Amino acid sequence: MQPAYFNAVMQGGFQDVAPEGSVRFLIAFQSGDFSFTPNTTEITVNTAGVYRIDYSLLVRPAAGQLNIAYAVAINGLENPLSFFGTYSSGLADTQRTEVTGMFIASIAAGSTVALRNKSSTTDYLAGTGIDHQAVNHAAILLQRIA
């Protein structure tokens, strides 16, 4: 078996992700059999296998509070191993918090993968204002390991 990977990011700017909404990705780099349309939320895995999935989000607080929870949905169902999040209060709106998650899952050929907001609040992903640099405010990596 040849290893395969799919890496997508959303650079700079900002993105609002409503509760139960999915994260959009813009730029992708891959080796392997994946389908993806830039500036959309779903990645199609065309080759079955066991995949390691990593994700990262850069979130700016709204009204001084962060209430963040994300999960990866495979064919519309959140994988229970993929839920990660954090909570903070009393933050300035110039602050950013990075949330990361990783897990391993078996994925069937033709399955769709999306990163979904599971918190009760809209999240503001912000990739600007970091030492005058535009950075990735969302990233996901799918890596076939078996």
Q: What is the architecture at the second tier of CATH?
A: Sandwich
| Largest sheet, strands/sense/barrel | 7 strands, antiparallel
What is the number of E strands?
13
Average pLDDT number: 94
Provide the number of structural domains: 1
Secondary-structure content class: mainly beta
Q: Distance between the terminal alpha carbons, to the nearest Å?
A: 7 Å
**Total count of helical runs of at least 4 residues:** 0
* CATH fold node name: Jelly Rolls
Q: What best-fitting shape do the alpha-carbon axes yield?
A: globular
Strand % is over 45%
Q: Topology of this protein?
A:
Layout (H helix, E strand, L loop, with lengths): L3 E8 L2 E4 L9 E5 L2 E3 L6 E3 L3 E12 L4 E10 L2 E2 L5 E6 L7 E11 L3 E7 L5 E4 L9 E9 L2
Antiparallel strand pairs: 1-3, 1-13, 2-12, 4-5, 5-11, 6-10, 6-12, 6-13, 7-8, 7-9, 7-11
Give your account of this protein's structure.
- With 146 residues, the chain is mainly beta.
- It has a single domain (4-144), classed as Jelly Rolls (Sandwich).
- Helix content is 0%, strand content 58%.
- It has no helices and 13 strands.
- It has strands at residues 4-11, 14-17, 27-31, 34-36, 43-45, 49-60, 65-74, 77-78, 84-89, 97-107, 111-117, 123-126, 136-144.
- Strands 1, 2, 3, 6, 10, 12 and 13 form a 7-stranded antiparallel β-sheet that branches.
- A hairpin with a 2-residue loop joins strand 7 and strand 8 (77-78).
- The model has no long low-confidence stretch (mean pLDDT 94).
Provide a compact summary of the structure.
0% of the residues lie in helices and 58% in strands. The protein is an all-beta fold and 146 residues long. The strands form two sheets. Strands 1, 2, 3, 6, 10, 12 and 13 form a seven-stranded antiparallel beta sheet that branches. Strands 4, 5, 7, 8, 9 and 11 form a six-stranded antiparallel beta sheet that branches.
